[in-house]
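Progress report, Aim 2. The chain analyzed during this reporting quarter is listed below.
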Amino acid sequence: MVYIWRFKKFPESATNPRYMRILLYLKVNGPKSSKELAKIFNLKPESMRRVLQHLRKLGLVEVVLIPRESLEYFNESGRNEA
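Predicted structure tokens for the chain:
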């Protein structure tokens, strides 16, 4: 599965400038994966995941799961056709 992060809201009080840049980027550019965000902000993927999890706990971003395979990949017998 791929995790796609999207903007939910800005914080009510001041926060870390790095967090604000990430939030503003998501608001303007739409949902992105943590891997894409890590590359854009020149962070290690692990560091970006920690930042995003922190923002999620604060209610500032939300995550959407996108399956790698959709139902179109399976035939009626339930076997993968790809």
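Residues 20 and 82 are 41 Å apart (CA to CA). The first strand starts at residue 2 and ends at 7. These observations will guide the mutagenesis work planned for the next reporting period.
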